[in-house]
Amino acid sequence: MSLNLQTYKEHFTNPLYLESGRILEPYDLVYETYGKLNEKKDNVIVVCHALTGSHHAAGKYDGDSKPGWWDPMIGDGKPIDTNKYFVICVNTIGSCFGSTGPMSPEYPSDKPYRLRFPVITISDMVKAQRILFDRLGIQKVNTIIGGSMGGMQALCFAIEHPNFAKKHIILASTYATQPWAIAFNKVAREAVISDPAFRGGNYNPEDIKNYGFAGFAIGRMCGHISYLSPDSMEKKFGRAYVETDGLYELFGRYQVERYLDYNGKNFVNWFDPLSFLYITKAINNFDATRNYDSLEDSLSRINSDIVLMSFKSDLLFLPKEMKKIYKTLKKIDKPHKLRYIEVDSNYGHDAFLVEYDKFTHYIKEEL
Asked: Among 39, 114, 154, 337, which is disulfide-ready with 305 (CB 3.0 to 4.6 Å)?
């Protein structure tokens, strides 16, 4: 069977009641599907994306040079096998790839929300997806899987919608965003907000395309450092210098500097600054214990199988954070099946998007 990539947009006119007490109405969700839904509708796998991801997780659109962000994972004979499963990936609210976000028109006007957009949480993202699945007639799914912010969504699904999935696979994530990660996000957010090009949130997207956005690029550089590790940078760049830059030129660059320059400036071309601010706020706010007495109380709601996968050199969400989820579930004797895997990787946080040979066999086992 082919990948059978299909892209859809659903429009909702009923209000989405947010955790903050505010309402989002109306709103859109863009999503992508792969494979074929069986008659029983019990072969569904939900893939949740990370901060800068989107609904486009696999395959290519016409004219694309690059496939979706998790293409090695999804498809014919791949770990998430579209011969067997019907895969859905939803673009979260707050993002800039078609679902309602800060640059969407604020009904009934045609002017974008900008800073009037409500602060959203991981719970809000998950709630919107659950409403979408109800509309699609999908009342229970086989597995929910995601890494980083996608892992936060998977854990949130497990706690707040405990009977919706049989299994949750959580990669490179946490039960609550810790000060180290919040600090990286602070530097990145401040770089965006303090740049005059931000204009208090009233920037013109066309101006950004034409003239760039230095603060936003710097923010991305900061984030990108947290996604790697000292070992991966040493292996990838060493102390190599840019051949055309003079060693004794003040602004001459090492290869690692050029790499960060490129990634920062390129990021500005395809992601929206306000979406970046709103989604990093949602990540900072994530805490699976916030509406419960304790982590034990929170995790005691879980009824599904849980697979936790950390990466040894992850500096953003440390393996000990995933171990804490595992130890807590073990202590309260939940759930029926529980597995913790620490992948021996030196790449850093982004290993779940890069070093597929290190972990895909675990995913195959679980599916």
From this structure: 337
Among candidate residues 95, 123, 148, 298, the one labeled active-site is: 148
**Cβ pair 33, 74 in contact under 8 A:** no
Which residues of the chain have a pLDDT value below 50?
none
* Residue 56 annotated as catalytic: no
Does residue 349 carry a catalytic annotation? yes
Digit-coded pLDDT (tens) for 254-267: 999 999 999 999 99
Quote the CA–CA distance of 189 and 223 in Å, as a whole number.
Answer: 10
Active-site entry in 55, 161, 168, 349:
349
| Contact partners, residue 51, CB within 8 Å, separation at least 6 | 148, 149, 223, 276, 279, 280, 283
**Torsion region of 210: left, alpha or beta (phi above 0 gives left; psi -120 to 50 gives alpha):** alpha
CA distance 312 to 348: 8
pLDDT in tens, 330-349: 999 988 899 999 999 999 99
Domains of the chain as residue ranges with CATH: 6-176+288-366 (3.40.50.1820), 181-281 (1.10.1740.110)
From 54, 314, 345, 350, the catalytic residue: 314
pLDDT at position 336, please?
Answer: 83
